[in-house]
Write a structure and sequence with these properties.
Helices cover about 65% and strands about 10% of the residues of chain A. By secondary structure, chain A is of the alpha+beta class. Chain A folds into five domains: about 15-235; about 240-300, no CATH class; about 305-400, no CATH class; about 405-485; about 495-605, Heat Shock Protein 90, CATH 3.30.565.10. The longest helix of chain A is centred in the C-terminal third of the chain and has 63 residues, at about 390-455. Chain B is α/β, with parallel strands linked by helices and about 210 residues long. Chain B has two domains: about 1-130, Rossmann fold (3-Layer(aba) Sandwich); about 135-210, Orthogonal Bundle (Arc Repressor Mutant, subunit A). Chain B has helices spanning about 10-20, 35-45, 60-75, 110-120, 130-135, 150-160, 165-175, 175-190, 200-210; strands spanning about 1-5, 25-30, 50, 80-85, 100-105, 125-130. A six-stranded parallel sheet of chain B has the order 2-1-3-4-5-6, with helices on both faces. In chain B, β1 (about 1-5), α1 and β2 (about 25-30) form a beta-alpha-beta unit. In chain B, α2 (about 35-45) packs parallel to α3 (about 60-75) and α7 (about 165-175) packs across α8. Chain B starts with a strand and ends with a helix. The chains are: A alpha+beta (about 600), B alpha/beta (about 210).
């Protein structure tokens, strides 16, 4: 098939050996062509194997000239073939110049590529002529030979050095891809040079030439395989895995079939044996294929197996409550070895616009998020898709949590806005009471007094007006109390002043520590009423003998602590619940510590932006 | 006496003008906003200015601010502040100076007491509403000397702050005058104030102490 020559010539092992040598590069080339049909890497790889096959064939063809049954035009072919070996390197040069992206490293490298066939023709020419001359070498011809060989070796070295240039220019990933290939490629011209030296020193030609051939036909495809498999080129591992699995499965099936035929043949007629064998083979085919596919997948692509196992493990831990679903981004980053990876989730009420190339995350028909990869390659994208399928649960849970959190924030904001409005409304109501109703009542009282003083103090109406004005006074005082309950007007003088008045009304001794504070209306009102309610509770339920209150502003948080020395054991009842609601509505936190017998401590913390 | 009224509520202003006029006083000027009030008082130089704490333009404590300005220009000018409720922030510097009063608005309905208070202020004394005094004498810290006073002593102090004499306080609390005097001594001692002959100065000293 490859390097075909008459079996009578050369060693019997020649054909299988050369075929085995050439097959890996040819297979690899075919796989790359399937995965990336547009790129020249696949053809270059195939060329690496195909040209030597042609050269070997030509050499064998030429050799028949010296036998009893020569092939057509054998002697002409022999003349050319004796110096054809430089062409062995055509594929190699193409490959090292174009790997990995299919483009030359720069414009000037075209000359190297062009120099390759020129120097190959030159060497071919001088070697063929030398072979045909059958006379001693003249100095002029010797010089030509040296020039031709040197030019050829220089071209090879220059081509190999293109990888060094790429390596030095390239980023981390490029360097990883090129490392092995660079070593192998530089080894090829060096080994060639050494082999010339060896044959000049008298070593047998076959032995001398074997090494660079092995380097070129085994090391180069090997290094490229490493670059492709380990460093995300062409996403070839899946295809390779499938191919190998089918191959192995077919072999095993054939083996099973043969074994059953053999085993059954002894006891049953032929047809029964064949039928049984077919039946047994069909039975084992699918499970064997699955098992082999998995095993091959693990061998060919261990990263995938590890990555998916880590994600599965994470999902299990999320299910068991050992991990938070929000960690999914970090887990995906480390499992897919992509620090730039991002999990974008759609926020409620907004459209997600995933960047181009992102992998959509779907729930039902709607896109709920996207996975953005930091480094993209066909293989990474495929793996990320698999990872997304595995990680569906934590992604969905974190999306729901995000939605919930945003909804809660919105509710909290709207409640706080509502409370601000309520406070503003109370303020307005208090003013209306003071400036409207109270003023009018007093004005009426004054007119009544005017009327009264026009009367004779002796008449009954005089005394009656006295009583009416007194009632009016009480009404005004009543209104003042109501207005105070709606919103204590003392808050106009600041929270500190208002609190001082508040504790002054207490029948228990109160230690109040409060500096002058400049806080917002909502926070001040909330703390005022909460402290008032806390004092009332201490008086009513706690059987306290002393209350201490401290209020302070720290890091934009207004903090009030009301402590009593009463019986403690306060339970969450209507009073505390309504306090908690009031504090929460101002965006604050409310804590009660009340161990039985050890007093009650109520803490209110309200963030103040002002 | 010649009086200027600074009050934005027409109803209240007219009622008060009428009441005062009927009681033999002369209203020489009125103002409905704080800046206007300052100019009117400068122009007519009344015997007494009656000023609402809450007035335009901001409807917070513009009246009190106007009073502070007027006092700064002429420290002896008698001023009587009126308020719908107790607000002490602006006026705390004026409380305790002579010729200053601060009453809740409903006190005008007790016409006799109100006219007395006006008279005291014009004579250079003080007239403070009990509610306002109570607000001022509220102890705010443990180390506040006022906290050391007994309930009775605080009551006495509040009456002193209203500008009442010892005998008036004794009559008000139904006590012997000597008892009131001993309360006063105790108050001065606890507040660490040296006794001085002038009652008025004692009041000032007490209120100065209270303002701390």
């Amino acid at each position: 098939m490859l390097a075909y020559g008459p079996p009578s010539i050369g060693e019997p092992a020649d054909w299988p050996v050369t075929t085995a040598l050439l097959l890996p590069a040819l297979l690899l080339g075919w796989l790359v062509v399937v995965r990336a049909p547009a790129g020249p890497i696949g053809p270059a790889l195939a060329l690496t194997a195909a040209v030597p096959a042609l050269v070997f064939t030509a050499e064998d063809w030429g050799t028949t000239a010296h036998t009893s049954s020569p092939w057509p035009a054998a002697s002409a072919v022999d003349k050319v073939a004796v110096g054809a070996w430089p062409w062995l390197f055509l594929g190699f040069v193409t490959l090292v110049l174009l790997f990995p992206d299919g483009l030359l490293p720069g414009r000037h490298w075209r000359w190297i590529w062009a120099a390759m066939p020129v120097s190959a023709v030159l060497v071919n020419f001088v070697v063929s002529r030398e072979d045909a001359a059958r006379t001693d070498t003249t100095p002029a011809r010797a010089a030509l030979i040296v020039i031709a060989f040197a030019a050829f070796l220089a071209t090879l070295l220059a081509a190999a050095s293109s990888l060094v240039v790429r390596y030095r220019r390239g980023d981390q990933l490029t360097r990883q891809r090129l490392r092995w290939l660079m070593a192998a490629a530089v080894a090829v011209p060096i080994l060639l040079g050494l082999s010339w030296l060896a044959s000049a020193l008298g070593a047998p030609g076959t032995l001398a030439y074997t090494w660079f051939l092995i380097a070129m036909l085994v090391l180069i495809p090997g290094a490229i395989t490493v670059a492709i498999l380990r460093h995300d080129l062409f996403d070839i591992d899946r295809l390779l895995g499938a191919t190998v699995s089918w191959l192995v499965t077919s072999l095993i099936s054939a083996g099973v079939f043969a074994a059953v035929v053999l085993a059954a043949g002894g006891f049953f007629p032929d047809r029964v044996g064949v039928t049984t064998a077919a039946f047994v083979t069909a039975l084992v085919l699918l499970p064997v294929y699955h098992w082999i596919h998995r095993t091959v997948g693990r061998l060919v692509d261990p990263d995938r197996t590890v990555a998916l196992a880590r994600i599965r493990d994470f999902v299990r831990r999320v299910r068991d409550g050992e991990a938070e679903p929000e960690q999914i981004e970090a887990v995906l980053r480390s499992a897919l070895d992509d620090p730039g990876l991002q999990v974008l989730l759609r926020r409620p009420g907004s459209e997600l616009e995933p960047p181009a190339g992102a992998i959509p995350l779907q729930t039902g028909d709607s896109v709920v998020g996207a996975l953005v990869l930091g480094t993209t390659s066909a293989r990474r994208v495929r793996r990320a898709r698999e990872a997304v399928v595995e990680a569906r649960l934590p992604i969905e849970v974190s999306r729901l949590q995000l939605e919930l959190r945003e909804a809660l924030t919105e509710v909290r904001h709207s409640r706080s806005r509502l409370m601000d409005e309520v406070n503003a409304e109370r303020h307005r109501l208090e003013r209306d009471l003071h400036d409207g109703a109270q003023q009018r009542l007093i004005a009426i009282g004054m007119r009544l007094r005017s009327v009264q003083y026009q009367l004779d103090p002796g008449v009954p109406a005089y005394r009656e007006l006295d009583e009416v004005v007194e009632t009016l006074e009480e009404t005004v005082a009543e209104l003042r109390r109501i207005a105070h309950g709606v919103r204590p007007s003392r808050l106009d003088d600041g929270l500190a002043v208002a609190l001082r008045h508040l504790v002054a009304d207490s029948t228990l001794p109160v230690d109040l520590v409060v500096p002058e504070l400049d806080v917002g209306e909502s926070a001040a009102t909330t703390v005022y009423f909460t402290v008032g309610e806390a004092i009332a509770n201490a008086l009513k339920h706690a059987r306290a003998t002393r209350i201490s209150i401290s209020v302070g502003l720290n890091d934009q948080v207004l903090r009030a602590v009301v402590r009593d020395d009463g019986v403690g054991g306060a339970k969450e009842g209507f009073g505390l619940t309504s306090l908690r609601d009031r504090v929460a509505s101002a965006g604050g936190e409310f804590t009660v510590v009340s161990p039985p017998g050890a007093g009650t401590s109520i803490t209110v913390e309200i963030p103040c932006a002002s | 006496m010649r009086i200027v009224i600074g009050e934005d509520s027409a109803l209240f202003r007219e009622g008060l003008s009428r009441l005062l006029t009927e009681n033999g006083h002369e209203i020489v000027g009125t103002a409905v906003a704080a800046d206007e009030l300052v100019e009117v008082v400068r122009d007519v130089d009344p015997d007494l200015s009656i000023i609402d704490v809450r007035m335009p333009p901001t409807m917070t404590d513009d009246g009190a601010r106007a009073a502070v300005i007027l006092r700064a220009e002429s420290p002896a000018r008698p001023i009587l502040m009126l308020s719908q409720h107790i607000e002490t922030r602006q006026v705390v510097g004026l409380v305790g100076t002579g010729g200053f009063g601060y009453l809740l608005k409903d006190r005008v309905l007790r016409v006799g007491d109100f006219l007395d208070a006006m008279r005291r202020v014009v004579d250079g004394g003080s007239a403070l509403d009990p509610a306002i005094v109570a607000a001022l004498v509220t102890p705010t810290r443990i180390d506040d000397p006022v906290a050391a006073l007994s309930a009775r002593e605080r009551e006495v102090l509040a009456l002193v702050a209203e500008g009442r004499s010892n005998s008036a306080i004794a009559a008000h609390l139904v006590l012997a005058e000597r008892t009131v005097e001993s309360h006063m001594r105790s108050i001065f001692q606890k507040l660490r104030i040296d006794e001085a002959p002038d009652t008025h100065r004692r009041v000032l000293a007490v209120l100065t102490q209270l303002r701390q």
